[in-house]
Amino acid sequence: LPHPPQELVSGESEEESNGVNLMEFSDEILLHILSYVPCTDLVLNVRRTCRKLATLCLDKSLTHTVVLQKDYKVNKDKVKQLMRDIGKEIYQLNMAGCYWLPSSTIDHVTRCKNLVKLNLSGCHVTSLRLSKMLSTLQHLRSLAIDVNPGFDASQLSSECKATLSRVLELKQTLYTPSYGVVPCCTSLEKLLLYFEILDRSREGFMLSGQLMVGESNVPHYQNLRVFYARLAPGYVNQEVVRLYLAVLSDRTPENLHAFLISAPGSFAETGATKNLLDSMARNVRLDALQLPKAWINGSGLLQHLKFNNPFYFSFSRCTLSGGHLIQRVINGGKDLKSLTSLNLSGCVHCLAPESLFRKAEDDIDSSILESLVVSCCNLRHLNLSAAHHHSSESIGNHLCQLLSRLKHLLSLALPVCSITDVAANVEKPPTASNLVPQPFGKKVRIGIQTYPRNLTDQANQKLESSVFWALMGSLRFLETLEIIGSSFSSAMPRNEPAIRNSLPPCVRAQSVGDSEVAAISQLTYLQSLTLAQLPNILTGSGLISIGLQCQHLRTLSLANLGMMGKVVYMSALMDMLKHCKCLRDLRLEQPYLCAGAQFFQALSHCSSLQRLCIVSRSGTLQSDAVMSFMANCLEVIMCHMFMGESLTVCKTLQQSIVRSFQADRPALNVVIFPLLHEDLTEVIRDVPMRHLDEITLFKSRVAEEPPNLWW
């Protein structure tokens, strides 16, 4: 922060002359205000403004926990000075995702002798540096690190291993087949494992998880209470996690109360995993559960598992029927007030009594959803995306009407086809031209009807009494909303070439468009919004309403809205962006998107914007407009564009941005690359995991993992 004018320091400010002086507030109020200021600014700048602030900025309530995560302006020198000034006062240090800091920065953490919790996920840490640092942190009980190629556990000193033996919580992200530091953590109560190992090395060699077999040490799980594993796509990740699970299958910890494995695709059950699950069914009572779909489908596992006071369930992509869900999980509709987070994403039959003879598009059984809502009345996070949840014509039993009873919801993910009014579909069935996906580039004549651009006219045209409008009105405290087409798939998957063809939207979704988007503007406290595959977007006018009403919006993701051959909502989007002063993350995925001067000029109004990602097949960009935007928006530290421009144009622009802005923005990460280029996957692997996981790759994030899984 800049030094204040002399009159502020001397206490003769204009505010004081008008009877308002910030320094006259009580210490409690000032401490609360200062808690919103980044710690680096407090210690290195604010405390130098006057004597009172000099004392308050070093208050234990402000220095006890230091969060550098997403403090994109912090650099090595600031960290060094921060540790020198208040290192002994820091008990919790979060440096997660500080990928831009050199590995030598970690050396300064040794000044924090009293550290209890340390998060270094996404930071560059070698085995030797880790050993030196941990040797000095005798009070450490919680640790998060990455294990990269070249990690060697034999380089860890005896003092380091002594520290690790006292660690109770470990979060470990693996980029190479290894046990990492797990065998040294003999007192573990919580273990979080993120498997990000690629099947091939940079040189093209196939990797094998069996490289771990030669390691002499094995994990110690006897005190384990929480086991969580999240796997990126790839068979090596599956091989490695099986080695971690092998020890669990021999002896299941008696105090285990949360067992969660998130695995994409097919992850087959083996004899060892079956023994593990059988042992869990006999010996433990769980509070949180997530298993690969192959471990649940067709088995009677859920009938035998015992639950205590469950707070999280995920049955993502399972073929679990609604009948089994009610009988085996919710105990026939008994009280489950403890459940706060439920993920049924891709669980296509979860709202039907049985799945044997049912088609995925058949109507849901509203009584099952009603039992779910009544039993789990305290749900805060609910994911029903990636499935066709079609309501019947029964009055009062629409999915939106039933969900409106969940007054505590903070985040919600729904398929597009689930929010449409049944009556509207009956009265106005989709025309043949709407049902057939239009070829790219083909212009469709809308007709003579005009479409309003403001909330009032839209409300008059499409009844405010619609079920979705009423749902949005009843969930006034909702912070995260995802409305995603049941057949939507991003053009940019994780470890594969870009998808060239997309499936048409569900027939029931054909009428969902501008008025439904306008209904979202009732969510005054909305912070994150995802809209994907809404086919009836004609002008995007509802976006303007959101921009005006949802002033807390920080994350916006739009994908495949309206006609696929033309970006029909661009004008409305530009109007919307002028009002989004708090927007930090913007992701756009739309074929034929033209990112020109007008777009970037509108985007420049988003003064808080930090990350921008555009994915557009056959899309174009204007290089000088991008450069002007980067110069105007000083907070932007991530610019990812995967479009239809040539490799030469992309590389030239990327180099220009880095050359012009890297010096002033240490965290700057720029990737501009042709979407359909064969080397896209190689480029993606160099993107910091923080950005890749949070914005660049499209996915549903509601109830993705248990709340407060890590501090």
Automatic annotation (TrEMBL):
Q: Which part of the chain is the F-box domain?
A: 19-66
Superkingdom of this entry's organism?
A: Eukaryota
Alphabetical GO CC annotations of the entry are: SCF ubiquitin ligase complex
GO BP: SCF-dependent proteasomal ubiquitin-dependent protein catabolic process
Q: Which PANTHER family match?
A: F-BOX AND LEUCINE-RICH REPEAT PROTEIN 18, F-BOX/TPR REPEAT PROTEIN POF3
Protein name in the entry: FXL18 protein
- Could you tell me which species this protein originates from? Centropus bengalensis (lesser coucal)
Which gene is this protein's source? Answer: Fbxl18
